[in-house]
Predict the 3D structure of the following.
Amino acid sequence: MRGFPPLQIFLLALAFGLLAIPLVQLTGNAANVPTPVLMVGEASAAKLENVPTLIRLRYAHKPTSVSLKQAGKELLGAVDLAESPSETQVTMAISKAGDDLELTASWADGTPETALTLEIEPDGNEERSQTRWSSGTALNEILTFIW
């Protein structure tokens, strides 16, 4: 025996209506919650910390020069590029919101495209690593590290 189709449609609509009430309660209030707005200058200036940091460079082909700058300040100084990995200890201003570093490297003519890996390990934070490939004999990149 078959059911009465208008009654089945009514029961189906009633079931969807009953399910819609808790869904509206759960998702409808999300639009009313204010989201915090962070001013870029205020957030980065308020949370900058000078931290002793280990910087490590790994490469397959020895670069002729490497420069790593944060806000115009050179971080690598006189790093020894004689062997890979090259390490140096610096004091670096870090922010939990993230830091942009300018990496510039160059290689001798005839060097094939090669990778350069930068590993940064601030005291009290996890190590972060990024690898970039050179195009020709030069590499110019802006790297963002978030701790």
The first helix runs from residue 5 to 28. The first strand starts at residue 49 and ends at 59. Residues 48-145 form one domain.
